[in-house]
Amino acid sequence: MTEKRIPMETFQVEKICEKCNVGKMTTDGITLLSNPPKYLHTCSECQNQQYFDVAYPYIAYGVKNDQ
Q: What is the model's pLDDT at position 1?
């Protein structure tokens, strides 16, 4: 069996606050054990709190585009 190596890029995915459109939402470590789980986040600027289905920030990967 032949193997092939494909270059990948790593991305940090951040959520911008929907209230002030400036701050970044970061998880507080509080999780609602619902299905799916909900993660409490607080804005770094306005202290707005909101639950999301994913914990921000998180790491994502994508195939590297050769230029």
A: 84
User: Measured between alpha carbons, how far is 36 from 65 in angstroms, rounded to an integer?
Assistant: 33
Determine the Cα–Cα distance for residues 43 and 40; give it in Å rounded to an integer: 10
Q: What is the mean pLDDT of each run of 10 residues along the chain (67 residues)?
A: 91 97 96 95 97 96 77
State the SS3 of the chain. Answer: CCCCCCCEEEEEECEECCCCCCCEEEEEEEEECCCCCEEEEEECCCCCEEEECCCCCEEEEEECCCC
CA dist 39 and 25 (Å) reads 11
3 burial via Cβ count (<10 Å: 0-12, 13-18, 19+): exposed
Cβ–Cβ < 8 Å for 27, 13? no
